[in-house]
Amino acid sequence: MRALGPGSVSSFLKIILDVVFFALWIGLGAVALMMLAAVLFSFNPELIDNISIRTGATEIEAGGPVLLGGLAAAGLYLAGVLVIVERLRRIFATLTAGDPFHPENVRRLRVIGLVLAGLEIGRYLVYAIGIWALPGADITRPEFSPTAWFSVLVVFVLAEIFREGARLRREAELTI
Fold first, then answer.
1. Overall number of domains in the chain
2. Do the domain assignments include residue 55?
3. For residue 159, is pLDDT > 90?
4. pLDDT in tens, 13-36
5. How many whole angstroms separate alpha carbon 159 and alpha carbon 166?
6. Which helix (H) or strand (E) holds 150?
């Protein structure tokens, strides 16, 4: 089976990314609706008094701000994953077209690397905000993930490889 072009593995992966892309949009819409509901219910707090969040051995009463903050964190995470999947869709579209060293793929890979790094830093920020906003909560401290940071570095290295491939392709087009 071929790796590039129509009917290849890359075109199959592009279809999978398309499905995931639209599923992420649905998930992001659901989170936005839940955030809207949390804001509306905060005008009548008795409606959400029975909601509680269990973190470890501690149970937290989830008022409007706590619920809204958690939903906002989930929404930002989904938005980051959505950006990554959207860029991957565009990269795989160029692979399906048989043009792997398209100059835009370099920028797309760099954006993916930055968003991956941002998502990882976001884990630490959510922890810090949680400790600050919920001082009695038993919130699990996020561990340093070498795998995540290795992935970020790999994506940036791949971006440079694609940049070099695009440069070589431009040079080849100029030769007679």
1. 1
2. yes
3. yes
4. 999 999 999 999 999 999 999 888
5. 10
6. helix 146-174
pTM: 0.81
pLDDT tens digits along 94-135: 989 888 888 899 999 999 999 999 999 999 998 888 888 777
- Tokens (6 digits) for 71: 């939903």
Residue whose tokens read 């919920």: 134
Asked, for residue 163, whether it belongs to a domain, the answer is yes
Nearest-Å Rg of the Cα atoms of the chain is: 21
Return d(Cα 7, Cα 69) in angstroms, integer.
44
Residue 4 lies inside a defined structural domain of this protein? no
| Neighbour-count burial of 44, counting CB atoms closer than 10 A to its CB (0-12 exposed, 13-18 middle, 19+ buried) | exposed
Kindly tell me if the per-residue pLDDT of 71 is higher than 60.
yes
Q: Which domain holds residue 62?
A: 9-174
H-type alpha helices, 56-101: 64-96
- Nearest alpha-carbon partner for 138 in 51, 53, 52, 57: 57
Question: 24 and 85 in contact (C-beta within 8 Å)?
Answer: yes
Backbone angles phi, psi at 11, to 5 degrees: -70, -35
